[in-house]
Amino acid sequence: MSLLTHLPRHRQLVCRQCLHNRRQALPLALSKRSITTKQDAEQIRRAEWETQARRIRSGAQKSMLTVLEERGFVKDVAGGRKALDWLLTEKRIGAYVGVDPTAPSLHVGHLLPLMALYWMYFYGFNTVTLFGGCTVQIGDPSGRKTARTRQGADVQAMNVQSIEAQLRKLWIHVKCLGIKHRYPIQTSADNHQKVLDNGSWLKGLTAVDLMKDLGSGMRLGAMLSRDSVRQRTESGDGMAISEFCYPLFQAYDWWHMYSQKGVQLQLGGSDQYGNICAGMDAVNHMRKLRRGENERQVDEDVLTATFGLTTPLLTTASGEKFGKSAGNAVWLDQTMMSSFDLYQYFLRTSDDDVERYLKLFTFIPIDYIYLVMEKQRKDAGKRVAQHLLAKEIVELAHGAASAKKAEVAHKEAFSDGTRTFSLSALRKTLSNGTIVDVPTSSNMIEPTESDRALKLTDYKRGFIAATQAPSTATDSSIDDVANSVVTIPSTLLRVGTFPRILHAAGLVASRNEGHKLIKSKGAYVVVPNSGTVENPHGLKWEQVPEGTSIDPNHYLVDWEALVVRSGKSKFQVCRIISEERFEAEGMTCPGWEDFKAKRAEQAAAGKDQ
Ligand SMILES: N[C@@H](Cc1ccc(O)cc1)C(=O)O
Predict the structure, then answer these.
(1) I want to staple 62 with a disulfide (CB 3.0 to 4.6 A). Which of 37, 66, 160, 269 is the partner?
(2) Straight-line distance from the first to the last Cα atom of the chain, in angstroms, rounded to the nearest whole number
């Protein structure tokens, strides 16, 4: 906990443990009077750090790197593991994670390096989350097989604005979670935690200066041998000079923050390894050039050296890509993915993955995670670990109030394992649920010059609609439901059309797969009026019966909703509306165009006869 020195003395809320630590850490003279001057604060910070270092050296506390490794954050360390472990114990260095605002929101994949950085914050390091207001205009080729499509200046400006706000919001939630989990955040200093835009220094940098200083120290051989460059040249697609030079800009960021803020460590996803190594070389070169430091000092002094740390690429235990829902990214922005859906995405985590995710995506102390996992193994059906994971992530991304609401909505919806579904929860979902029309074209909806006034939220909605998997997808990797409510025209509800409905609801990738799901007894539907005396509003699930004589209309709840489920917990609430309204509002759903085409064909054939 911080010492909250700006508050009057009686409001400095410090828990007993912190008070004890603080007394131990403070030089006697300081602990007796109130802390006022900057030097005092600095002295306390130093004393706090020294106490922590002593505890780590004596084995009473785990080192920073050990914590990161134990929780699964470390794939590669550039610069040497042992040296980094030592440095992180001895010196309160600066560390940073950068993201390019290529979309209006971060997605869960971004969280990995960010979480590692947040842990460093709890340990007292000076931390920077950087957004690439300038680098996004160039486009990082790392890990990409093709060049990015160029975005309009308006789109870019909105993305930058949105990502900056999101990074700031995440920090607020991180601090709240830190307090909740009782991490002793050390006395804050000006540079303890910052959100920076690389535009603020790259914009003023001239091309000549970049090439003269930094460019002269970067070797072509190393840059050419990078995977992203090799792949493109080998595939014949080639690469633009701008993309090829991208690492120079990222390297300059680091040099800027190294020289101004003592940032010695960069964290990033595994695709950033090349950029990070290029940055380390560049910083060394600049140190020799600008500061006139001698070669040996730069190459050998660990206390001033730079290091890189990459986080692993996440896949689920069954080998699928992590962070995709129905083929789309799992966004952290609430207007692009509701708290309900984000919660549901993580609630579906398999038992094999959940422990790993709890370590990576939550700040829950590791011993508590082990306890939860014991409980989980005893009664896996309750999914305690998954609920905990889902709630913590929503709390991190959307805040505590949203997390609580999402938890209640889910627990109510599945009040008895996955067997009952309460009417009130369903009604709530129907009234809150975002109805996202799946667009007919996969073109990005980009605001034009004349659309300058377009609000950010509208833009985000447009973005999410445009980047959804196309409605006619037959991609069998669709294993998820992205929205709380989908809208389906009543025309699709005919005797024998359950496979079509499962497809329209997004639970399966085609009508054929719908058939298969029903046949394998994996499809369920909520039965209306199935409450009991004890639980009159509870709704029960029933297996969708096989056969062509089943009428989905018999399962309509409140005459407006059909709730279908695939397997254990993948469910979808479908709002049923008339075809006229569906068409008038320009909506569509998987299989709809196909259905209409067939209907027209049949009508034409009927006329011919
Ligand atoms: N290149 C990074 C983002 C980044 C930008 C600037 C930096 O200084 C660091 C990282 C990415 O695409 O993920």
Answers:
(1) 66
(2) 81
Q: Does the domain made of 324-413 have the CATH classification 3.90.550.10?
A: no
Residues of the chain with CATH 3.10.290.10: 449-608
Q: Ligand 1 atom 3: the closest Cα is on which residue?
A: 99
Domain spanning 449-608: CATH 3.10.290.10: yes
What integer is the mean pLDDT of 563-580?
Answer: 84
List Cβ<8 Å contacts ≥24 apart for 36-41.
Answer: 41/5, 41/187, 41/189
pLDDT by residue (tens digit) across 112-122? 999 999 999 99
Q: Which of 135, 194, 198 for mutating ligand 1's site (highest number of atoms within 8 Å of CB)?
A: 135
Top mutation candidate among 266, 272, 280 for ligand 1, by most atoms within 8 Å of CB: 272
pLDDT digit string, tens, across residues 331-362: 999 999 999 889 989 998 999 999 999 999 99
* Assigned fold of 73-311: Rossmann fold (3.40.50)
φ and ψ at residue 248, rounded to 5 degrees: -65, -40
Of 312 and 41, the structure prediction assigns the larger pLDDT to 312
Burial 35-62 (b: 16+ CB within 10 A, else e): beeeebbebbbebbbebbbebbeeeebe
d(CA 91, CA 301): 13
What is the per-residue pLDDT for 318?
Answer: 79
